Amino acid sequence: KIGNKKKKIVLITVIVSILAIIGSVGGYTVYTQAKIKERSAEVKADIADTWEKFTKKEDRNKKLEVFKKLSTSKSAYQKEVLKDFENTLKKMKTFFSKDYDKVISKNTLTDIDNISDKVKITTAKENLEKLLETIESENDTLKLKKLAEKTTPSKELIEKYTNRIKVIEEEEAKKKAEEEARKKAEEEANAVNSNNNNNNSNSSGN
Predict the structure, then answer these.
(1) Nearest to 81, CA basis, from 32, 33, 34, 46
(2) Taking a C-beta distance cutoff of 8 angstroms, is the pair 47, 85 a contact?
(3) Cβ–Cβ contacts within 10 Å for residue 51, how many?
(4) What is the DSSP letter of 57?
(5) CB within 8 A of 132, min separation 6: which ones?
(6) From residue 30, how far is each of 26, 27, 88 by CA, in Å?
(7) Is the pLDDT of residue 203 over 70?
(8) In angstroms, rounded to a whole number, what is the distance separating the alpha carbons of residues 92 and 84?
(9) 61: exposed, middle or buried (C-beta count within 10 Å: 0-12, 13-18, 19+)?
(10) Buried (b) or exposed (e) across 20-37, using 16+ Cβ within 10 A?
(11) Are 50 and 63 in contact (CB under 8 A)?
(12) How does DSSP classify residue 201?
């Protein structure tokens, strides 16, 4: 009987110990989850603050710096807030993407073959060339997946404008040559008439 009592005491002790361990593990888990939620809230607030800074920056280079700072901080964000992190980066990329579209739209000249204003075409061409340079430099940071959607239309327009400018310059050169030929012919005709008049005057005088 004494042996049975000892066994019961040992069993109870073991059970109590197990319950204590379970309780402590459970308590630690609850504590850990609370800390994670607290940290997540802080990080979400930090991401929201970063987005606000991005929207307030007027200079696009400053905006790019904010994007770069956030994108290089990915390792600091645990899985609980990665969605906020990715969505914010996506919104930042959208700003640059839409800005590219605006420049392309503004410098798209319709019915280009009937436009004779070389200055207008040249300005649009140079704006698109600058845009390509901007896209190339900014994409080192942005890493746009559909980059060709921005660069291809610009390159195609630049090619059209280059060809149209060439045609206009050829037409200008042709007109200039014709004008010079006309003036030369007039000068030669005037010289002949002047000589004839002088000869007639001399004949009359004799």
Answers:
(1) 46
(2) yes
(3) 18
(4) -
(5) 151, 154, 155, 158
(6) 6, 5, 30
(7) no
(8) 12
(9) exposed
(10) eeeeeeeeeeeeeeeeee
(11) no
(12) H
Instruction: Classify residue 73 by its DSSP letter.
Output: T
Report pLDDT digits (tens) over 156-183. 999 999 999 999 999 988 988 888 888 8
- The encoded tokens of residue 155 equal 């390159």
CA neighbor of 118 nearest in space, from 175, 179, 169? 169
Q: How far apart are CA 186 and CA 85, in angstroms?
A: 77
DSSP string, 87-130: HHHHHHHHHHHHHHHHHHHHT--SSGGG---HHHHHHHHHHHHH
Alpha carbons 103 and 72: distance in angstroms, whole number: 28
Contact between 128 and 158 under an 8 Å Cβ cutoff? The reply is yes
In angstroms, the CA 43 to CA 91 distance is 18
The pTM for the full model equals 0.69
> CA 166, CA 182: separation in Å to the nearest integer?
24
Q: Which residues neighbour 169 within 8 Å (Cβ) at sequence distance 6 or greater? A: 118
At 72, is the secondary structure helix, strand, or coil? coil
